[in-house]
Amino acid sequence: MVRLIEPRFFDTSALLRLVLEEPGSTKARAIARDWAPVYTSWLLVGEALGVLKDKWRKKLLSEDQYAAAVFVLLSRIESDVKVVDLATAYDRPVLEINQHYIHEIRQRHTRLDAADAIQLALILRGIRGTTSASLVAADATLLRAAQEEGIATIPVNNDDG
């Protein structure tokens, strides 16, 4: 059953929980399955692919596990996770968020990296015409910054609640 309510925005840690067995995977998968729409950023897809590659190189994932995780992640992006941070202008991809806005968020939350600040900026700007989206993440620093910005959060660092 899909519930159509405010969007859910998955950060890298939540995306990885869709494809790997980690604490919070069951919760992240349930959110992606039961709530619509689910959004993310192309930057976060790239980060997730980089984490999977790193786990594979360090032999934390076998070749088959790595291939399966990449396949599932890209399949989810194709089917039910929408990517919202790039647009096209004059036949070139452009970031939909003003870099000054990203800089302002990083000034308020100095422990965030640029990708984290972009996530918050996307959510604060409003996703696809909505005014509220919940951040789904396992990163405590990012969740705390989101809450300080007034963004609803759904932690997926474990499968409780």
Task: Give a description of the structure.
This protein is 51% helix and 20% strand. The chain is of the alpha/beta class and 161 residues long. It has a single domain (3-155), classed as Rossmann fold (3-Layer(aba) Sandwich), CATH 3.40.50.1010. The strands form 2 sheets. Strands 3-2-1-6-7 form a 5-stranded parallel sheet, sandwiched between helices. The two termini are 19 Å apart. The model has no long low-confidence stretch (mean pLDDT 86).
What layout of secondary structure does this protein have?
Elements: E1 3-10, H1 12-19, H2 25-34, E2 35-40, H3 42-57, H4 63-79, E3 81-83, E4 86-89, E5 92-95, H5 99-108, H6 114-125, E6 134-137, H7 140-148, E7 153-155
Parallel strand pairs: 1-2, 1-6, 2-3, 6-7
Antiparallel strand pairs: 4-5
Helix pairs in contact: 1-2, 1-3, 1-4, 3-4, 5-6
Short description:
With 161 residues, the chain is α/β, with parallel strands linked by helices.
